[in-house]
Design brief:
Elements lengths: L1 E5 L9 E7 L6 E2 L4 E7 L2 E6 L4 E6 L6 E3 L3 E6 L6 E2 L52 H10 L26 H8 L36 H16 L2 E9 L1 H14 L9 H14 L5 E4 L4 E4 L5 E7 L2 E3 L2 E2 L7 H16 L13 E5 L18 E14 L5 E14 L5 H16 L2 H7 L1
Parallel strand pairs: 1-9, 13-16, 16-17
Antiparallel strand pairs: 1-8, 2-4, 2-7, 3-6, 4-5, 6-8, 10-18, 11-12, 13-14, 13-15, 17-18
Helix pairs in contact: 5-6, 5-7
Length: 443
């Protein structure tokens, strides 16, 4: 019997995924729950397990290819010599617990594309999942496992009893909803068999001057699409301020002796995060996202700070949630943990989405000035540059050494005027030049 396995629902708001790596080959034996393929969505790699034990009859999606949810991934031969068995509809199919895999979505109809339905409407019967089975996406299964929630004890409120974030008591993160509501970066193309085909370009001319052709795939392609969308949609402008962080340098050096005893490296970023939160409280319109579909600025009440970080495959933006509620040492520990797991490719989609404001820094390589591109749909991003000791004139007319640093903030001029951007950065500057205010703020 041939089983057609389609790309399952791998997270709220996810419409497609890019095939990053196949862990099996055609003709190989595969067992149930064995990892089949790694799929990239929203900068997070999701490893999808096999729903069946059998043999890989055919792989339908090549590495680098984008597949819509419900698009055909692989055909698995479970009984030799049988005819193909279409996968059950997504609304009634379920993933065996406890493995974090989603149901096989819509039935296959490769011979007649108009009939294929990657995400058919739920059954009118609304009878829910069969006894002992759980309807939940891998994304929610991972969240439940992280929080120690037994999904078999949760009553699903979604179609056919499907479990949603609300059923787990988890508020949906704001930014993914806004991103999901926005048009996709690339213009949609007619679909066939549940996914949009990419035209094959003619062979590139071979010349002696060409050293290498590097395919733009995986996270690098996601970054390219996201940056292109941001620059096309937002009206960028950048404002720069010089900060005297001499007192911050001294405070950080004193605190590091205590924080680093617990195995956490104390950088300047936690202090900058606290100063940014203070600035956002004074200027809330910068802690916001744009809903271009409704032409509305969505001002956020929570302070979820994205920290742009370099990873082997490209830039990622892990999110520190509720940064206003955390101490400097807690922020240091969380930033270090997110960075380490980000470089290892072990962050979940939830940890890479939902930011309300982003900070980008290259640390000691931070240079003098940059014009960061907005992490759309956010309306502001702060660039942090290196600290340098230089001579300065003091108020008493003397010249002495000072630790100086530039901060550059890029803003969406459609909704944030230059005066407000300058006032925000002036607030951040005041807190960093007198960092003891950060602790008075917590009192």
């Amino acid at each position: 019997m041939l089983f057609e396995f389609r790309l399952p629902d791998i997270g709220e708001g996810v419409a497609e995924g890019e095939v990053v790596q196949w862990f099996v080959k055609e003709g190989e034996a595969v067992r149930e729950d064995q990892t089949l393929v790694s799929v990239l969505t929203d900068k997070a790699n999701v490893e999808i397990p096999s729903p069946k034990t059998g043999r890989i009859a055919k792989i339908h999606a090549a590495v680098g290819e984008k597949v819509k949810v419900g698009g055909l991934l692989v055909t698995i031969e479970t009984e030799p010599g049988a005819t193909p068995k279409p996968a059950p509809p997504a609304s009634s199919a379920v993933a065996p617990a406890p493995s974090p895999k989603a149901a096989a979505p819509a039935r296959a109809a490769p011979a007649s594309p108009p009939v294929a339905a990657p995400t058919p409407p739920p059954s009118a019967a609304g009878t829910g999942a069969p006894p002992g089975r759980v309807l939940a996406s891998p994304y929610l299964r991972r969240l439940a496992a992280e929080r120690g929630i037994d999904l078999s004890q949760v009553k699903g409120s979604g179609p056919a009893g499907r479990i949603t974030e609300a059923d787990l008591g988890i508020a949906p993160t704001p930014a993914p909803a806004s991103v999901g509501a926005s048009p996709a970066p690339a213009a949609p193309t007619p679909t066939s068999g549940g996914r949009a085909p990419t035209p094959t370009p003619p062979p590139a001319p071979v010349t002696a001057e060409v050293l290498e052709r590097v395919p733009i795939r995986g996270i690098r392609r996601v970054i390219a699409e996201h940056m292109t969308e941001s620059t096309h949609r937002a009206a960028h402008y950048t404002y720069v301020e010089e900060i005297d962080v001499s007192e911050l340098v001294r405070l950080r050096d004193r605190m590091a002796k205590h924080v680093e005893k617990r195995g956490t490296r104390l950088s300047y970023l936690p202090f900058i995060v606290k100063a940014v939160v203070a600035g956002l409280k004074a200027h809330p319109h910068l802690n916001a996202t744009m809903d271009d579909a409704r032409e509305e600025l969505v001002v956020r009440s929570a302070y979820h700070i994205g920290i742009a970080a370099a990873a082997p495959d490209g830039l990622i933006v892990p999110v520190v949630r509720n940064a206003d509620q955390k101490s400097v040492s807690t922020l240091a520990r969380e930033i270090q943990d997110l960075a380490e797991r980000g470089r290892a490719g072990k962050l979940s989609r939830a940890e890479l989405t939902g930011s309300t404001f982003t900070i980008t820094s290259l640390g000691a390589l931070g240079g003098v000035l940059a014009t960061p591109i907005l992490n759309y749909p956010e309306v502001a991003i702060l660039g942090v540059h290196k600290i340098q000791r230089r001579p300065v004139y003091r108020p008493d007319g003397t010249i002495g050494p000072a630790d100086l640093m530039n901060l550059s903030i890029s803003l969406d001029h459609r909704v944030v005027d230059g005066a407000e951007g300058a006032q925000f950065l002036a607030t951040v500057k005041a807190y960093l030049e007198d960092p003891h205010q950060l602790f008075a703020e917590l009192a």
